[in-house]
Amino acid sequence: MDSSELQPIFDFVNGLVPFNQLQPESLEWAARQLEIAYFPAASHIVPLSDDDRRLYIVRSGAFEVRDKEGELVDRLGEGDYFGYPSLLSGDEISNSVKVLEDGLVYQLPEECFSELCSANREFSRFFNRAYARRMRHEGRFKARSMLTTSRLSSLMSSDPITIDIDQLVGEAARLMSQHRVSSVLVQEGEQLVGILTDRDLRSRVLAEDKGPFTRIADVMTTAPLTVEPETLVFEATVLMGEHNVHHLPVTRNGKPVGMVTSTDILRSQSSQPLLMMGEIDRQTHIEGLVNLSKRIPMLLQNLISADARAEEIGRILTSVTDALTRRLIELAQSQLGEAPMDFCWLAFGSQGRQDQVACSDQDNGMLLAREPDSQEAEYFSQLAKIVCDGLDACGYIYCPGDIMAMNPKWRMSLKEWQQRFSSWVNSPEPKALMHASIFFDMRAIYGPERLFDGLQLSVLELTRDNDIFLALLTGNAMNSRPPLGFFRQFVLERDGSEVKGIDLKHKGSAIINDIARVYALSAGVREINTPKRIRQLVDLGVINRKDALNLADAQEFIAHMRLANQGRQFEEGQKPDNYLKPGAVSSLVRHQLKEAFKVVDDAQSGIRLRFMRAY
């Protein structure tokens, strides 16, 4: 290999940890030993052999490492390594490497890798630490509870009890008694059309003085919430908590193939979030909810210790917040009486996106079916105050900006909300753009879906392909930049002379939320959760797959670092915040964090080019 061919290889590996720790002569020697291989996506996998072990360095492209069960271990891009576990352990290669995008890979033979490890302590330490982390990750992954890793197919009853829609309630009750189950699935032909539970028998049959000859169709729950067998137990838990249901039919192509109940999940391991949500549902006083909410910091600690993904932690914690909110609404109605009209309780910001962590404040509002008269307005004012006061007592402090349902400004009819969003979109003043970052991430916590749909769909109709609004929203999203200065050194936040650290929320996660929001509003995507928004944008072809994977990985890594840092702060008796001091983590983590922020910076440049071309 002549010098002209060697120089780009030398320059590339010289920019990688730990090759940049080598002496120039060692680095040049290593660069000369590297072999170049090209793997097209059509080849599907990288061929690995125990007879020819190598260290693989990704020069370009995208790859996935999966274990022998097919579970995702890691995603790799430019500058990442694979192959080192078997080089260090001597064990047989058990993982497979899938080619996601055409890529070039540099390969260092085993004897060269061993020589570099023997000659350079930092080089050896880097890969040994990486191997230890991989082993901890895989060990924790396999040891995690069924709640976060198993699929419903491993938990559901695979022989669900079904009954035809033309049958009577008496026959359904006999089936439930005979099979000792608390529900039957109602079919029309082979398709699932409803579910009849023991709760339905109590509330819709016995309480209504109806007898065994009542038609099932008259008392069943129609169009029940369903999932597929591949759904994670974690996802099912969240759905059951969000919709306050205890029976979840499992279907494929509309045909029932199984049933999962809250009891099934409670019997599985580590069901603490669902247990907590069940306890929330049974509380009859706000004091009970306040006491339960004191467990949330420990729940967060347990999830962090279990090495759950940041996305999972956010959804679990938000599900607990949702459950508290719904129960507060129910307790308020038991005190004030039934609401005079349909309404939705809206969650904005982090609760809307389902990415809550520690120290979350309130961002909520109320959507009313129509304009209330003075008496009705007073009812909703009292209800909102009970709920917001209750949330504050449970640790969700009042919004510093007063964006709460107890503020009449954010308690409006459908028509008023539509007009408010229309003014924000069509007259996007700076304050309107600030509101966009909060209000456009909205989700209904309580109330009829059709009412919320009427608002959300009208909002997306306003923003889809609205070049002026999207350009200004993009400009607003550029106000914060990732904390990288010259020579890619971290820019630290300071409070006077005190160094607070890297602001992982406002300089990282929040920017990614802004980027995903701009793309989602431009394409009319209804999803609110940022990782799900990114996945849906890929499916629609709005973002290319490589950029989306990079952005999703950066989001997960930065959010994970934020949670891990808050976990450390909690253990040390400090008040959790969003600031990470670089000295608190290893040089490798700092390197990875810089790479994640570089992805965020590139993604910001991407939306600027796409939506601000004419501005």
From TrEMBL:
SMART domains registered for this protein in UniProt: CBS, cNMP
PANTHER family reported in the protein's UniProt record: CBS DOMAIN AND CYCLIC NUCLEOTIDE-REGULATED NUCLEOTIDYLTRANSFERASE (PTHR48108:SF31), CBS DOMAIN-CONTAINING PROTEIN CBSX2, CHLOROPLASTIC (PTHR48108)
UniProt-listed PROSITE patterns: CBS, CNMP_BINDING_3
Stretches of the chain forming a coiled coil according to its record: none
Lineage: Bacteria, Pseudomonadati, Pseudomonadota, Gammaproteobacteria, Alteromonadales
InterPro entries, per the entry: CBS_dom, CBS_dom_sf, CBS_domain-containing, cNMP-bd_dom, cNMP-bd_dom_sf, DUF294_put_nucleoTrafse_sb-bd, GlnD_Uridyltrans_N, RmlC-like_jellyroll
Residue ranges of domain Cyclic nucleotide-binding in the record: 18-134
CBS domain: residues covered: 156-213, 220-276
Protein name from the UniProt record: DUF294 nucleotidyltransferase-like domain-containing protein
Keywords recorded for this protein, A-Z: CBS domain, Repeat
SUPFAM superfamilies: cAMP-binding domain-like, CBS-domain pair
